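[step 3/7] fold_predict: job queued, chain A
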Amino acid sequence: MPFNAKSRVVLPVLSVILLVPPALHAAAPALPLPVRSGTLASRALGENREFWVSLPDAYDGSGERYPVLYMMDGEFNFNSGQIGGLRHAAQMGEIPEFIVVGIPNTDRAKDSFQEEFAYSDGSRAGGRADRFLDFIRQELVPYIDRNYRTEKFRVLYGTSNMGFTVVHALFRNPELADYYVAASATLRVPDFLARRDQLLRDFKGGERKLCLVMGENDYPTILSQNGELKEACDSIAPAGLSCRFIVVENAGHVPGDALLQGLRRLFAGWEATEPPAGTGD
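[step 4/7] structure written:
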């Protein structure tokens, strides 16, 4: 095994919640319970990376296989409200049931961008996105596939700066996922803007779908640059790559229902009796 892995089950601990200091309790993510939690010793990143897994309600008794949703910015996005919305939409037949894997950050500033940036205060960001994606593709996905009943169909979700990471992953490692959902993606990255149209023309990743979601009151650069990517995708991308574009009314940066809106749009017309058609690896 190329890395060490350990898993544990996080069970409800309502009886001890009052013993947790208020400040500490407020900072912890609101995890849906029960959640399986694990840690991988990542060779790609040279550090331990925690992950959380939420299984469909019928997982233990069904014997079925499920597509997997990989959720970056796990400490923000992997919560009861978000996952509850997905479970309800699946129950209504709007989207499939997913195994949801949350990936919390250790150094979000480094992992978001492949380029390294220097800010006016001397701080730096970026430079590790490719290694972060290698961790997901080479280490986390194989671990989840070995230990859970997965379909060969994956969705990758990220928000804001990590929304850019989703778009970057689509072009760098298109086999990582079948559908990509980027909420309020920060696309103002010099290297990406310089190469965007060529990346679209040269895309050879097969059948992939990208959904860009933002709020109508989002930052002007988010609205304009995501709109430009949508237009470029529609005009010059090969037939297998398609892009959906959603502006959520009365919402700001990273709408609260961005993921659900994106999945509903991507799965429009999907029949609940059929598993999603993944391309596999």
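[step 5/7] annotate
The domain at 5-266 is CATH 3.40.50.1820 (Rossmann fold).
The two ends are 20 Å apart (CA to CA).
exit 0
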